[in-house]
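Today's session is about reading a structure prediction critically. Students often jump straight to the picture, but the first step is always the sequence itself: look for stretches that repeat, for charged clusters, for runs of hydrophobic residues. Only then move on to the predicted structure, which in these notes is written as discrete structure tokens rather than atom positions. Here is the chain we will use throughout the hour.
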Amino acid sequence: MIEIPDAYQGMFICESDSTLIIISDQIVYAQHEHFFVISTVGLEEREDCSLMENEIYLPGKEMCIPIEYIDENTVKGYITDIDTLFIMNEAHVAKLYKGHLFLSKRVNQDEWAVSMLSNDSDGNINYRTITEDSSFKSIRRITQMEDITRPTDRKQRFKITPDKKAFDLLINNKNIFIDCEYLMRINLEIEQPESF
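Below is the predicted structure for this chain, in token form.
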């Protein structure tokens, strides 16, 4: 597949934390807005930013943030962070299978992290994946699991290599592909960031 199908494209709000998720034909990204109010004294004491007239310069992000003065000692503004979740390339593959969209991201040479997106009748999306909350007992009944946890890993990691029949059993077992997010479709116009 060379692009994400139209039925999955659009803007969505995460039900859990109101993060804006944008899905286009080639990319899935999260947009986070961080609003702040801070004293100008506090800003001048920080090494990681500089106050300049109506902007704050953040050298770590190499960007200027517009601000408004509430009074002569206090400013307000917001920062937009973009987190790329998926972008079509040889290390990120999208594939339709049995009415679901699978997004696979290469972790290592022969290891992939797989997520499953499913549309509901209102055009919203259930995002499902295998997480630490999944039933590993159920997975072991269907296919072998290899512990590939490294000493530097924060969480235990497993590798599975299911055949087609086992994969069908995995995706249909509600204890394995856990619903980790419900994305509600919204109708907003938003410009795609220039960094893409």
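Discussion point for the tutorial: The chain has a mean pLDDT of 85.
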